[in-house]
Amino acid sequence: MAATAAARGTASRSPLLIHHHRLPQVPAGGGGSLRVGALGAGRDWRRRVRVFARYSSQPQDFSSRLQDRAGELPKLVEDLLQTSISTGPRGAFRMAQGIQALLGVGGEWLNDFSKTANTSEGIPAQMRLGLLSPLYLRRLFERMGATYIKLGQFIASAPTFFPAEYVEEFQNCFDRAPPVPYSEIESILREELQRPLDSVYEYIDPVPIASASIAQVHGARLKSSQKDVVIKVLKPGIEDTLVADLNFIYLVARVLEFLSPELERTSLVAIIKDIKESMLEEVDFRKEAVNMEAFQRYIEAMGFDRQAKSPFVYQHCSTKRVLTMERLYGVPLTDLDSIRSLVPDPELTLVTALNVWYVSLPPAASVYLLV
């Protein structure tokens, strides 16, 4: 199709009249090239024009594939309409946000580009990739919000699939998402708990411990028991954003599978459905609380309570969007230097942690190794 378009563009710039009886027959199979000599007046061979036309059976094959799948078209249209209706006006809003994010990060790139273009060092190699460079792509994902930050976390966790510079840059997507102002977090807490916050908590630290893609974590102390806790709060509007983004991705996958049946072998739509269900479960902290309690029971039943622990959940101040749990102090498993300073055998500690985690960790549960 691209070759055809190019030929048409050339023809529009240099008109060429060819008598039909001079054209040789083209074999039905196609796939070859046809060379036609156009003779000017007086058979001036110096003015000979050669036209090359390539014939391909691909457009015909594509058309026949669509005809074969015509019976599936009503189902596709129905699916697209239902998904679009369930998304509602959020889809248009997210598209506007996407354009705004693209313009914002594009402006940052142009500003940085203008600063380096006239320097003696020249333009850095990373900037030549534009918005596809690791730095600016990560910034774009962060501006696009929760769904794309999750995708960034996937990139950071898959060094075998993505280049090292992208894996390293997208590490910043873990617990470094832009924080939500505490005033908004406080409003969510009041709405969810349905009582004055000072009747539940002695204090809440307004500075977040961590800000991830869908939630933000604040340190606090319970008023009744004076125990240190952490409060995990779902960020405002996250559920609507996830639904809109994942529905859009699902629509794209459905259309791609319809146009290219070969993609059905990859189960693309089924994978997108699984991702959607998994991500939407993450915004219901009640399920996470159930998983954490179930995992703690497993730890105790298997005698692993000296090696691992799941934080205790305080149900009286936990809801679908708020999770209050015991605060445990420790170090990440990736911080090997700190682990070596705490335990005599860090390798055994890591093996124990991974064994406990892989054997029985339920979805969305939290496990902490006791070191």
Describe the structure in your own words.
With 371 residues, the protein is α+β, with helices and mostly antiparallel strands. The chain has 3 domains: 2-56, no CATH class; 88-173, no CATH class; 182-236 and 284-369, Phosphorylase Kinase, domain 1 (2-Layer Sandwich). The protein contains 13 helices and 9 strands. It has helices at 2-13, 58-68, 73-87, 90-117, 134-144, 146-156, 164-169, 182-193, 238-259, 268-281, 285-301, 336-342, 346-360; strands at 33-38, 49-54, 201-204, 210-211, 215-222, 228-234, 308-309, 322-326, 368-369. Strands 3, 4, 5, 6 and 8 form a 5-stranded antiparallel beta sheet that branches. α4 (90-117) packs antiparallel against α5 (134-144) and α5 runs antiparallel to α6 (146-156). It is globular and about 65 Å long. Residues 1-60 have low confidence and may be disordered.
Based on CA atoms alone, the radius of gyration comes out at: 30 Å
The share of residues in helices is 40-55%
- Strand portion: 5-15%
Give the name of the CATH superfamily of the largest domain: Phosphorylase Kinase, domain 1
Structural class: alpha+beta
Regions with little confidence, pLDDT below 50 for 5+ residues:
1-60
Pfam family, one: ABC1
Organism: Triticum urartu
Domain ABC1 atypical kinase-like: 174-341
GO cellular component, one term: plastoglobule
Map the helices and strands:
Elements: H1 2-13, E1 33-38, E2 49-54, H2 58-68, H3 73-87, H4 90-117, H5 134-144, H6 146-156, H7 164-169, H8 182-193, E3 201-204, E4 210-211, E5 215-222, E6 228-234, H9 238-259, H10 268-281, H11 285-301, E7 308-309, E8 322-326, H12 336-342, H13 346-360, E9 368-369
Antiparallel strand pairs: 1-2, 3-5, 4-5, 5-6, 6-8, 7-9
Helix pairs in contact: 3-9, 4-5, 5-6, 9-10
